[in-house]
UniProtKB/TrEMBL annotation:
Its main location: membrane. It comes from Echeneis naucrates. One of its GO terms (cellular component) is Golgi apparatus. The chain crosses the membrane at residues 29-48. This is Golgi associated kinase 1B.
Length: 493
């Protein structure tokens, strides 16, 4: 309709143009011609604007997908030059190569020490010489200390070594190096409680008053205990010192907390100047409730043979808080505790509780079970006694994992599967951690807190090797769970 009107208005204009020279134009004709020209200009501008808008929209749709690819692959920044955006040569494909980032646990970045500690390390030699002069001076005044320094007696020989006069030496080291428990963030990893962190700091940094060897009588090994200030000026038993070869105690503590079992006592690694040639020793928190009648009477233990243990597993003792019958043969330990113990011991290959006779693997000639002749008892498995089955005096339903001497040098073809015998359920919380593939990250974050242990194992490289062994055993355990139909259930007791 608009076009027909346009033609009707413009035809007279064309006729007037043809006869422009022959006749004189009237005012009405000129007015019609002006209106027609104005209308023609508006139409042309409108059509041109519509065409340009359509072209721009088509071009935007054409490159919108390309910009989306770039945003997805490069994190949202568009490539630019001084003139503006660069249009790719191909309309819908952009090829971008990004260098993969190195995956590291969150807290491992904290391995960079503050400058103050670096300066302290550079002055270590001079400071050590200074403190050694102090020790020599004190030794001349105190004959007991001087004899200990010269003889360098072992802990078995020094029954009651007074370290009180050596506090100045230990304080100097603490001032220069700070605490050996490193927590650079605002809080410790969530699997460590405030009590755990407090105990770790106390074991690693407490001022030592004296170190004593306490005999427990019988065949039980002696305990090497150090006394320290408890913050309010009082002294008391604070920790037991193990041999430098028993470093698994520290690893076991962190593995226990990462898995959420919470059955081990806090443990750290610490050096004592006159014990074991100042090598790092595991120090485990002292718990008097494990000795309800005193050290001489021994710990609160459960006495079971292998046959009794297997029978109690079938009875599912104390499940749903139902008291077992007297003839059931049940101990005071809850049924779920055995599942947690078996899983924990399997990962670390601790056999001194459920398999002290080494019946479930091929022992070496230097192993204790072979030297003491326990391995020969495997012919009568049902009568082999379990060992180190301990609970607290006030909590007889739950176990306490102590003397956690594990073995990292045992290959997958020689693992002790006897530890898992009779176990039909495993704790869901623990298995979920093993399946999450975050075990390494959590162990690194946790073990990094103990600087003395971290450095004694060779730093990150040595710790990674230990975790490699645990991860291989995790794969074996998960395969065992699937192959034997082990149930994974909640065990919140």
């Amino acid at each position: 309709m608009g076009k027909s009107r346009f033609h009707r208005l413009c035809v007279p204009l064309l006729r007037l143009t043809a006869s422009f020279r022959r006749c004189r134009l009237s005012k009405r004709t000129l007015l019609v011609a002006a209106v027609c020209a104005l209308y023609w200009g508006v139409v042309v501008l409108h059509v041109g604007h519509s065409e340009r808008h359509r072209d721009r929209k088509t071009g935007g749709d054409k490159y919108r997908h390309t910009r989306g690819l770039y945003h997805l692959e490069s994190g949202g920044d568009h490539p630019q030059t001084a003139a503006g955006f660069v249009v790719p040569t191909r309309s819908n494909v952009v090829y971008i190569t990004l260098k993969a980032k190195r995956l590291k646990p969150a807290n491992i970045r904290g391995t960079i020490r503050p400058k103050l500690r670096r300066k302290a390390r550079r002055n270590k030699s001079a400071h050590s010489a200074f403190t050694q002069n102090k020790v020599d001076t004190l030794g001349q005044d105190a004959g007991q200390i001087q004899r200990n320094v010269e003889a360098k007696t072992s802990w078995r020989e020094s029954r009651d070594v007074d370290y009180k006069s050596l506090d100045v030496n230990q304080d100097a080291e603490t001032e220069s190096h700070g605490s050996s428990i490193r927590i650079y963030s605002q809080r410790a990893p969530p699997w460590l409680s405030q009590q755990d962190v407090k105990a770790m700091r106390f074991l690693a940094d407490a001022k030592v008053l004296r170190i004593r060897e306490v005999s427990r009588g019988g065949d039980s090994p002696s305990l090497l205990i150090f006394e320290a200030h408890r913050g309010n000026g009082t002294a008391g038993y604070s920790g037991t010192i193990s041999s430098p070869v028993d470093t698994t105690e520290v690893f076991a503590f962190h593995l226990d907390r990462v898995l959420g079992l919470n059955r081990t006592l806090p443990a750290v690694s610490r050096r004592f100047r006159f014990i074991h040639d100042a090598q790092p020793c595991p120090v485990v928190s002292w718990d008097a409730s494990l000795y309800p009648e005193g050290l001489a009477a021994g710990r609160a233990t459960v006495k079971l043979t292998w046959g009794d243990y297997q029978h109690s597993l079938k009875q599912r003792c104390w499940l749903k808080n139902i008291s077992p019958k007297p003839e059931s043969g049940c101990s005071t330990i809850h049924h779920y505790e055995w599942s947690k113990l078996a899983l924990f011991d399997f990962l670390l290959q601790i056999h001194n509780r459920l398999d002290q006779s080494c019946c479930g693997f091929r022992p070496r000639q230097e192993d204790v079970c072979v030297k003491l002749g326990h391995h020969a008892q495997c012919a009568d498995k049902d009568h082999i006694k379990l060992a180190n089955i301990i609970h607290r005096d006030y909590d007889s339903r739950h176990l306490v994992f102590t003397h956690n001497k594990g073995f990292f040098d045992r290959n997958e073809d020689n693992l002790d599967f006897r530890l898992l015998e009779g176990i039909k359920e495993l704790p869901e919380q623990v298995v979920s951690v093993l399946r999450s593939r975050r075990l390494r990250e959590k162990l690194l974050q946790s073990l990094f807190l103990d600087q003395t242990y971290w450095e004694s194992q060779g730093g990150r490289q040595g710790i990674d090797k230990l975790i490699d062994v645990i991860e291989k055993r995790v794969k074996v355990l998960l395969t065992y769970i699937n192959a034997h139909g082990i149930k994974v259930i909640a065990m919140n007791v």
